[in-house]
Design brief:
The chain is mainly α. The protein has 6 helices and 2 strands, in the order H-H-E-H-H-H-H-E. It has helices at residues 2-11, 23-29, 47-57, 59-62, 99-109, 120-133, and strands spanning 44-45, 143-144. The protein has a two-stranded antiparallel ribbon with strand order 1-2. Helix 3 (47-57) packs across helix 6 (120-133) and helix 5 (99-109) crosses helix 6 (120-133). It is globular and about 55 Å long.
Length: 171
């Protein structure tokens, strides 16, 4: 029976769907940003520059103060001290362990209806605005590929490193 499946698989028709990506397409999609800042592009921004961008691009979903829209779009602000309670509130300020992850998420997925449209400096600025709303950075603090990885998030040590021997996780 196993041999017949192998023979069937070899005889199955090709559908000619898709194609091998070009090296340029692979490079364009290779936008991984690690907690230590590896992968962050050069750029900078602060909350002063981020506020108007946030208000025009983000507030419609996440609210003017980052409070979110219940049941539709998550809150970005608040929730500190709630993670160990019966009703934890997971926000950028209470849950996310790395500021670089905030930058990476905004860069990859925001605005929700048109991801990848924000220029690099705008991503740094919006990240700074959200971190400012959470009391993590000051309003005029410049965030860049060099300084963003140094931002210590309130829940930086709230995750447990996977201790299984086949996992090579580092913190």
């Amino acid at each position: 029976m196993l041999i017949s499946f192998a023979a069937f698989g070899q005889q199955a028709p090709g559908y000619n769907l898709g194609r091998t990506p070009t090296p340029d397409q692979i490079r364009a999609a290779d936008i991984t940003v690690l907690p230590d800042g590896t992968g962050l592009p050069a750029g900078q921004g602060n909350a002063v520059a981020g506020e108007p961008i946030y208000k025009s691009r983000c507030a419609v979903c996440h609210g003017p103060g980052g409070e979110g829209r219940k049941g539709e779009y998550p809150a970005l602000v608040g929730g500190r001290g709630t993670l160990a309670t019966a009703k934890p509130v997971k926000t950028v300020g209470s849950y996310w362990p790395y500021a670089t992850t905030v930058w990476d998420h905004i860069n990859r997925a925001m605005p929700f209806n048109t991801p990848h449209v924000l220029p690099v400096n705008d991503v740094y600025a919006v990240t700074a605005w959200i971190l400012y709303l959470n009391g993590i950075v000051t309003r005029d603090q410049q965030l860049s590929d060099k300084t963003l990885p140094k931002v210590v998030m309130p829940n930086r040590n709230g995750f447990v490193v996977d201790s299984r021997p086949d996992i090579k996780a580092k913190r």
